[in-house]
Amino acid sequence: MPQVYTCDFCGRKIPPGTGTSLVRRDGRIIRFCSSKCRKSMINLKRDPRKFKWTLKYGRR
């Protein structure tokens, strides 16, 4: 049974067979729904609470 994950940046659900994942050196798996989320978190080091297009917007 395919498992539905959530994006670690924006908080949206990732349908089975889509998205990308990154495994860090400490073994933590980070999953992204799109390249927009991946670039925002990894390359640009953005905070998802500051963007209106994320589900984490405004949360503390």
Written description of the protein model:
This protein is of the alpha+beta class. It has 1 helix and 4 strands; from the N terminus they run ββββα. The strands form 2 sheets. The protein has a two-stranded antiparallel sheet with strand order 1-2. A hairpin with a 6-residue loop joins strand 1 and strand 2.
Short description:
With 60 residues, the protein is α+β, with helices and mostly antiparallel strands.
Separation, N- and C-terminal Cα atoms:
34 Å
Going by CATH, the architecture would be Roll
Gyration radius, to the nearest Å?
12 Å
Structural class: alpha+beta
> Strand portion, in percent?
15-25%
Q: What's the structural domain tally? A: 1
Averaged pLDDT: 94
Q: What is the fourth-level CATH superfamily?
A: Ribosomal protein L24
**Percentage of residues assigned to helices:** 10-25%
Give the strand tally: 4
